[in-house]
């Protein structure tokens, strides 16, 4: 069982991690942050990424897809941004947001580790 602080520490332990946040998807507010990625304000990014999650959920509903978001990957020139909704009942409506240095990160391993962190997270 992992709490907010431990989840942020675990996220920052992923190779290439620059920053992480736990975010309320409906309000865009951060519940916890870690790291200090260059040129990325985690609070502003959290708010923007909550809009991304909400838009994807609306699109899935409009398409009649009976499925869940596993993660959303945004690939930039120098960074990967991963949005991972928390799947536990008590974590519903929250997501983990991870910023990775593209040159140092192994994307497959980062996704694997973030999945484990999300599954172990408890409120």
In short, what is this structure?
The protein is of the alpha+beta class and 123 residues long. It is built from 3 helices and 5 strands; from the N terminus they run αββαβββα. Strands 2-1-5-4-3 form a 5-stranded antiparallel beta sheet, sandwiched between helices.
Layout of secondary structure:
Blueprint: H1 4-12, E1 17-24, E2 30-35, H2 42-62, E3 72-75, E4 79-85, E5 94-101, H3 107-120
Antiparallel strand pairs: 1-2, 1-5, 3-4, 4-5
What structural keywords apply?
single chain, 123 residues, 5-stranded antiparallel sheet, globular
Give an account of the 3D structure.
The chain is of the alpha+beta class and 123 residues long. 36% of the residues lie in helices and 27% in strands. It has helices at residues 4-12, 42-62, 107-120, and strands at residues 17-24, 30-35, 72-75, 79-85, 94-101. A five-stranded antiparallel sheet has the order 2-1-5-4-3, sandwiched between helices. A hairpin with a 5-residue loop joins strand 1 and strand 2 (30-35). The longest helix has 21 residues, at 42-62. The radius of gyration is 13 Å and the shape is globular. It starts with a helix and ends with a helix.
Beta-strand share of residues: 25-35%
Structural class: alpha+beta
Please describe the biggest sheet, giving its number of strands, its sense, and whether it closes into a barrel: 5 strands, antiparallel
How do the strands of the widest beta sheet line up side by side?
2-1-5-4-3
Low-confidence stretches: none
Number of strands: 5
Give the count of helical stretches: 3
**How do the helices and strands follow one another from N- to C-terminus?**
HEEHEEEH
Name the helicity range. 25-40%
Alpha-carbon distance between the two ends? 9 Å
Q: What value does the Rg take, in angstroms?
A: 13 Å
Q: What global shape is seen?
A: globular
Mean pLDDT: 94
């Amino acid at each position: 069982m992992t709490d907010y602080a431990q989840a942020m520490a675990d996220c920052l332990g992923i190779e290439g991690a620059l920053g992480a946040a736990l975010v309320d998807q409906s309000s865009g507010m951060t519940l916890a942050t870690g790291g200090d990625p260059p040129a990325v304000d985690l609070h502003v990014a959290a708010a923007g990424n909550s809009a991304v999650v909400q838009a994807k959920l609306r699109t899935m509903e409009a398409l009649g897809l009976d499925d869940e978001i596993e993660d959303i990957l945004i690939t930039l020139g120098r960074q990967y941004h991963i949005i991972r909704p928390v799947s536990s009942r008590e974590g519903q409506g929250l997501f983990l947001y991870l910023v990775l240095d593209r040159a140092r990160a192994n994307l497959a391993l980062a996704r694997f580790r973030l999945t484990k962190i999300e599954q172990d997270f408890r409120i």
